[in-house]
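for the writeup, i need someone to sanity check this before i put it in the appendix. the sequnce is what the collaborator sent (i think, or maybe the updated version? ugh). structure was predicted straight from it, no edits. if anything looks off just tell me and ill rerun, i have time this weekend
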Amino acid sequence: MQKKQDQQTVPAADRRSRGPTEPDPNREQRTGGESRKIGKSIQQEDRK
């Protein structure tokens, strides 16, 4: 059932993963570097 939830979060997280050129120090500090892990997982799923 996690896969269904992933699809719903893909669009929201896709925006931060798609804009790596934009400065997002606030988001990285807020998540404590967790946003990077989430971005990598979304990018891998997006490539599928």
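The chain has a mean pLDDT of 56. The CA atoms of residues 26 and 32 lie 10 Å apart.
thx in advance!!
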